[in-house]
Amino acid sequence: MSPFAVLVVDDEPGMRDTLAAILEYHGYRVALAADGETAFTAVQAESFDVVVMDVKMPGRDGVSVLQDMGDPPPQVILMTAYALEDRLRAAVDAKAFAIVHKPFETGRMLSLVFDASQASR
Amino acid sequence: MADGLVEAPAVDSLGRRWPLRMMSAIILVVLGGAVVASSVVTLNVIRHQERLILQERTGEAAAVLGSAFASVQDSLQLLGSIAGSSPGNRQLFATAARSVLGPAQGLLVSTQRGASMRVIAAAGAAPAIGQAIPGAQAQLGRRALSTAGMVSGLVQQGERRWLYFALGRGAGPGTVVWWEAPLSQAVTIEASPGSPFGYLDIAVYLSARPDPSTLIAATTKHLPPAGLQYPFRVGHDTWLLVTTSTFPLVGSLVKDTPWIILVMGGLAVALTVTIVEVQGRRRDYAAAQVHEKTASLQTAMAELQDAQAQLVRQEKLAAVGQLASTVGHELRNPLAVIMNALYLLEVAAGENDMMRRHVATAKRETSAATLIVSDLLDYSVGREPMLAPVQVADLISESLSVVPPPAGVQVAGHSDPELFVTADRDQLRQALLNLITNGYEAMPDGGALTVSAASAEGSAQITVTDTGLGMSDETCQNIFTPFFTGKARGIGLGLAVTKRVVEAHGGTITVESTPSAGSSFTITVPAAAMVSVPQ
Question: B508 lies in which domain range?
Answer without folding.
Answer: 385-531
